[in-house]
Amino acid sequence: MMKLLVIGGGGREHALAWKLLQSPRVFKVFVAPGNAGTALEDGLENLPITAIPDLAEFARKEGISYTVVGPEVPLAAGIVDTFRAAGLKIFGPTRKAAQLEASKDFSKAFMQRHGIPTAAYVTFSDPVEAHRHLEQKGAPIVIKADGLAAGKGVVVALTLAEAHAAVDAMLVVNQMGDAGARVVIEEYLEGEEASFIVMADGHHVLPLATSQDHKRLQDGDQGPNTGGMGAYSPAPVISPALHARIMREVIQPVMSGMEQEGECYSGFLYAGLMIAKDGAIRVLEFNCRMGDPETEPIMLRLKSDLLTLVEHAVNGTLNQVEAEWDRRAALGVVMAAHGYPGTPRQGDVINGLPKTTLTSAAPEDIHVFHAATRLGGKDGKEIVTAGGRVLCVTALGDNIKIAQRRAYEIAGQIHFDDCQMRYDIGHRAINQRRK
Ligand code: AMP
Ligand code: GLY
Q: What is the whole-number distance in angstroms between the Cα of residue 64 and the centre of ligand 2?
């Protein structure tokens, strides 16, 4: 029987830990740092450690068989390099490979070197040149901070005034610190967005079930960009033909490109794509991790043992396995705190959580994954909000519409003050079916 470690504390990590624990060969999954949801599930245990050397020391002492990394920050800081150097098995890209997400400039240049389709771009560190470029190109145009900015580094400027303001915020006022010391200015693309996520072992890839998230805060895809207000799987926009093209035009060239550059890619790889009306595929971004909230519906649909997939990925034998998926659809609705995506209010008490969140009973068809929650309140036993995206209420159903109805039924029973939630998660998939 094995003990595992999941790094991170959001909804994605709750879903990964929950799924890993379902393996008959796992008896405990530590989650560092975890949240109230992972604290309360039998078999999961939170670990209040964040420093990478301390995590490696814990993994060695505790005899952790495999570590799975959720977020990009520890990956970009080299957690995989540290663990590997200590002889510990860990699933994720190295610090250098994580540059695909951690530096937009690296990522764009990499795509150019390897013929991967993406928007035309220029990188600037001098604000005067950046402003001049904006005047030449006009709006709409997209300005991206080079470094990691927790999902806040992209400004889709519909007017030149917004574009100039974004350049000033990043290059002059240094609003994003080092992350905004360079900016990528790129062509504005139109179309439908889709996410495509694979597991990679350095040489082979295993595509996960397709998914799509909703980035805007409000119904009808209005309001500010967020990390994602909900997601569903499968995503009908990814037809089998498009799936094959994404593998050929995007995923395989990343794998061979990284190999050629001496930095074989292993870990989850997430391509954010724009599919134009004429079917052209363009990469908006790479993430070196799973998506959040995409992970939550994807894990609810995964029937295979996630530990087995991780073992094959770490050992370079992903070509020997297949993933089995529930034929039903899954949909997750994010319940976010007051103030998100700005500065979220914390400490609001959450009521009405269904009992299923407190056990890890085998296959379930709904699960409330916790994201920013902690134990607190009067006696330290209440579950309170602790950040922006608080919960992801996820349900399976025979189709997206049924999954949607069930997710909203459960979400409707959960309460915390001034909760922000979209009521139309899944609308694109449902409308596509109608067409
Ligand atoms: P990114 O972090 O690069 O995926 O950007 C966040 C969001 O900004 C994406 O999900 C898109 O909605 C939007 N976006 C990014 N790049 C572009 C682009 N070149 N054209 C239009 N929208 C974009
Ligand atoms: N949901 C988008 C992301 O995880 O980047």
A: 28
